[in-house]
Amino acid sequence: MSDDDVRVRSDERRRLLNEFEVERNQLIRNIETCRIRDIDRPFIGDWSLKDIVGHVASWEAEYVAAIRDIRAGQPLPGHLLDERQHDHWNADHVERKRLLNFWSVYEQLRGGRQRLVDELEQVSDDDLTDESQDYVRVVRAATDHDREHWHHIAAVLAGMAGVQKSTPTNE
Fold it and tell me: Who has the most CB within 10 Å: 61, 123, 133, 166?
C-alpha cells in the first residue's frame, strides 16, 4: 500500500469519526436544552426525554458489542440488521430503564459513547473505512441514530409537530 493510500484511508477515518462525533455533540446539546419537566413526561409520542436517552444508551451498548463481535470474527447480531425487530427491541429496552434515575441513564449514554470510541480506536484505518466491512455499518448506524433523535428533539424544542426524515450527508 502506498503512502497516498494510507493517507486516504486516514482521511476517510477522520471524516467518518468526525461526523460520528458531530452528531453525538448535537444530540447532547439538544438533550441539555430540554426542560426538567420533559425528563419524565411524554415528550415525543409516549416517550419521555429519559426514555429517549435510555433508548440511545441501549443502542450504544449494542454497537459496542457489535464492534467486539466483528473483531472476534462473528457476524452482526440479527436485531441490528433487521429493522422489523427494532420496535420490539426498543420497547423492551426502554421499559428496562424506566425505573432508573435520569442522571444515571444520561451517564450510561456518555459512558457508552466512550466505550464505543475506545473500541473503534482498536480498528485499523483500512478495516474501519472498508465498505465491505461491518465496522463502517456500525459507525454509520450510530451516527444516523444520533442524528435521527436530535432532529426529533429539535423539532419539539422548536414547537414543530414533526420532523422531516433526514439522510446522511454522504449519501
Answer: 123
Nearest-angstrom CA–CA distance, 135 and 129: 8
pTM for the whole structure: 0.86
pLDDT tens track for 7-35: 788 999 999 999 999 999 999 999 999 99
Domains of the chain plus CATH, in order, are 3-157 (1.20.120.450)
Return the C-alpha cell found at 30: 439538544
Q: At what angle do helices 49-71 and 3-33 cross, to 10 degrees?
A: 160
Rounded Cα gap, residues 140 and 147, in angstroms: 10
Count other Cβ atoms within 10 Å, centred on residue 107: 13
Is 47 exposed, middle or buried, given 0-12, 13-18 or 19+ CB atoms closer than 10 A? middle
Compute CA distances 111 → 100, 108, 133, 161, 162, whole Å.
16, 5, 25, 32, 30
Q: Are 106 and 31 in contact (CB under 8 A)?
A: yes
